[in-house]
Amino acid sequence: MPEHPFQGWLEKAANYSSVVACGVYIGPQSMAVKSFSESFPEPQIKELLQHVAEIALSLRVYKLGSSRFRWVFENGQCHVAKRQDGIFGVLAVNQDPHAATAVEELFEKFIAIVPAPEKKPFQLPEPGESGSPPGNDNIQ
Amino acid sequence: MTALAPPPPRSISSHRVLLVDDDPEFIQVMKDFLVQKRDPAWVVHTAADYAEVLDCLKFNSVDLVVLDIQMPVMDGLQLLTLLKRSRPALPIVVLSGIVTPERRDYALQHGASLILEKTGVATEFERIYPALEATAEAPVEGFRGMLRQVGLIELLQLECLGKKSSVLELKGSNAGGHIYISEGNIIHAEFDNIFGEKALAQLLRLKGGGFRLAPFTQPSRLTIDGQWEGLLMEAAQSSDEQTGEEAEKQLADEKAGKDLIPKGDRRVEEIVVISTTNDVLYQSKAREPERRVRLINLLLIKSAEMSRIFPALGRPDRFEINELTNRVICLLQAETKVFVRLSISPPSTD
Questions:
Q1: Domain that holds residue A66
Q2: Cβ B327 vs Cβ B321: under 8 Å
Q3: If DSSP codes are grouped into helix, strand and coil, which group holds residue B170?
C-alpha cells in the first residue's frame, strides 16, 4: 500500500540533521508529526501544531499574511509554511548553520506535494498504530 | 571598629559609584568602606529611591550602580529594569539579602552585571570588593560593554530613538569597525574595508567581543541613508540565518566585489515600540497601534507556551512573517517588544 504523500515528506526530514521535529496540520483532529530528538516528544509536537494553527488564524484576523512565518528562540527556530489548500507544514530546527537550507528545501517539496484526492479523508497512522485518527478533515 | 585589610595597589583614576538603598545605615557603612579602600578614593553618590537615582544620574556620571533589591514602593529589580532601559551599558550590581535562583536569573536576564549577597558587616565587604572594582573599570569617556550583556541592536535602537549622535566602536575576536549615528540616524558604518549597509550587517553579526560608545565625530563619508528601523530589523533577521563559515564566505565574496544576495527596495511601513506595561512608547505610521499591542501580547503568550512545551528551545526572541512583498518582524524579548512591517519591492532587472 502506497504511503500518504505527507508521510513521505515527514520521513524526508530525517535526512536533514538540523531538523529536530516536523509536522503537518490539516485540522484539529488531523495532524501527523515526526520527531528526531528526545527533547521534542511527538505528543507535544501536536500541541505545538495547535498553537501554530491558532496563530495563523489570528494573523488573518490582524490582516497579516500567514503563508510563511517563523518563531526564533534562543536555541532553535520553528518554521511554518502554508500551502494553498490551507495545510500547514511545521519544521523545528536547531542552530545548525545549514538549517536555513534544510527549511527551504523541505518546504519547497512540501508545497509541491500533490494533495490527496478531494473528499477522501486524510489518513495518517499514528506512530505505532495502524488505524486512522478520529474526526479527520477533508482536504480542500 | 572592625579592622580592614590594607588597600590594594594605587590606581590613577577615581571610580564613581551610585549606591541605592533605603537603609541609611547600610549606605553609610558601605560608603565609609569604599572611600577608604582606594586612592584616589571612590566617589560615592547615594540615593534612597528611583526619583533620587534619576536626579543623581542627571547631574553625575557614574561607573557603577549598586542596587539593593528590597526597597519600598519600587523594588530593586523593577529599578534595574528601568535603569537598563535608559542606560543599557551602565554596569549594575544587585545586592540581595537572600540570593534565590529565581532572583539571580531574573536580575541577570534583565542586565545585572553581578548579583551579590548583601551584608551589613564591613568585613564581609572585603569578599565582594574585587567584584565591584572589576565591574567599575571604565574608560575615561563614553562607556563600554560586552555584547553578551547588552544587545547591540537594542543599544542602537535606543540611540536612534533618543535622536542621539555618537560613534559605536565594535571589536570582535578578529576584526572591528564603527557605526556612526547622527541625530538618531545611522549615517555610516565601516568594517574591515567594507562600508555602508553591508558593513553594518557584518558588525551586527558579531557574536562576541566588546563595544564602546564614543562621542560623535564626523565620518570621512556618508554611506547609509536608509531608515534605521528597517536596517536594524533586517540585520536582526539575517544574523541567525548566516553564521560561521557562511558569514566568512560572504565576507570574502563581498571583499571581492560580489553581491551575493540581490534584494529589492525595503520600506518601513509601520513600527510600534511597546513598553513592558503595554504602553506604546513610539510608533510610526501605525494606523491601529493598539491592535499591534494585542498581537504582540498574543505572540508572547504563545511563545511562552512553546518554550514551556519544549524547554530545549530556550527563551523566545522574535516572530517573523516572510512573504514575497511583505515582511513583519516582532521582537518578543522581555524588555523589547517591537512590531515592524516592511514592504519589499522586487529588485530591478535592469
A1: 5-112
A2: yes
A3: strand
CB contact under 8 A, A97 and B328: no
Mean pLDDT for the stretch of residues A63-67: 90
CATH number at residue B38: 3.40.50.2300
Confidence of residue A94 (pLDDT cuts 50, 70, 90): very high
Residue that finishes a domain, picked among B260, B286, B305 = B260
A38 CB contacts (<8 Å, ≥6 apart)? none
Q: B343 lies in a domain?
A: yes
Tell me, yes or no, if A40 comes closer than 8 A to chain B by beta carbon.
Answer: yes
Question: Is residue A121 in some structural domain?
Answer: no
Compare all CA atoms of chain B with the CA of A56 and give the residue at the minimum distance. B321
Residue type, B160: C
Q: Does A14 touch chain B (CB under 8 A)?
A: no
State whether B321 and A65 contact (CB < 8 Å): yes
Its domain, for residue B308, covers 262-350
Please indicate, yes or no, if residue A130 is contained in any of the structural domains: no
Average pLDDT over residues B266-277: 81
pLDDT score of B140 = 33
pLDDT for A93: 94
Choose from A50, A67, A71 for mutation: most chain B CBs within 10 A.
A71
Which comes out higher in pLDDT, residue B9 or B163?
Answer: B163
Interface test with B, best of A45, A47, A73 (most B CBs within 10 A): A73
Inter-chain CB proximity A47 and B298 less than 8 Å = no
Residue B25 has pLDDT above 70, yes or no: yes
- The interface predicted TM-score of the complex, written ipTM, equals 0.81
**Number of domains chain B contains:** 3
The CA distance from A70 to A103, in Å, is 11
Residues of chain B in contact with residue A75, where contact means CB-CB under 8 angstroms, are: 312-314
B6 within some domain: no
Please list every residue in chain A whose beta carbon sits closer than 8 Å to the beta carbon of residue B307: 73
Helical residues (DSSP H) of chain B, grouped into ranges: 24-37, 50-59, 76-86, 101-109, 122-136, 152-161, 197-204, 228-239, 244-255, 289-309
Residue B40: cis peptide before it, omega within 30 degrees of 0 = yes
- Whether residue A126 has pLDDT greater than 50: no
Asked if the structure places residue B9 within a domain, the reply is no
- The CA distance from A71 to the nearest CA of chain B, in Å, is 4
Whether A138 is in a domain gets the answer no
Mean pLDDT of A9-38: 91
The total number of structural domains that make up chain A: 1
Partners of residue B312 in chain A, C-beta under 8 Å = 37, 39-40, 75-76
In a domain, B1, yes or no: no
Q: Which chain A residues contact residue B311 at CB under 8 A? A: 39
Q: What is the mean pLDDT of residues B234-238?
A: 62
DSSP A97-128: TTHHHHHHHHHHHHHHSPPPPTTSBP--PPTT
Q: Are B165 and B249 contained in the same domain?
A: yes
By the CB < 8 Å criterion, does A120 face chain B? Answer: no
Cell of B62: 557614574
